[in-house]
Design brief:
The protein has about 110 residues and is α+β, with helices and mostly antiparallel strands. Helices cover about 55% and strands about 15% of the residues. It has a 3-stranded mixed sheet, covered by helices on one side. Helix 1 runs antiparallel to helix 2.
Length: about 110
């Protein structure tokens, strides 16, 4: 599991914030090397999945920036497309997992 204190030069800092859920569950703020997660997910069963999802975006965006700086425009475009496809598929996976967990909770009650 990831923690807030886990931070090095190649990992963004994980912060839990209030009311982010009004907009989204989590967001990658690559320009300040942080990932913000709504505090309601602090003890959630999908916390690891949210962190992994945002970390993937973080590393992909860093690779896109590097490719652009090296004038590897095609590589940057392909990475951007991959980032979008990853987001769509992984978000779907997260929603399915969330639904399964809700069903399990209802069955246990």
């Amino acid at each position: 599991m990831y923690s807030q204190s886990e931070n090095s030069s190649n990992k963004p800092k994980i912060r839990f914030v209030k009311h982010l859920k009004l907009y989204c569950d989590a967001i990658c703020l690559f320009w300040i090397d942080e990932i913000h997660i709504d505090e309601s997910f602090k003890n959630s069963k999908i916390l690891d999945d949210l962190i992994k999802h945002e970390l993937k975006h973080y590393y992909l965006i860093k690779r896109i920036i590097k490719a652009k700086e090296e004038n590897k425009i095609l590589k940057a475009i392909l990475l951007s497309i991959y980032n979008d496809i990853f987001d769509l598929l992984d978000s779907l996976k997260l929603e399915i997992k969330r639904l399964i967990l809700k069903c399990k909770d209802k069955l246990e009650k």
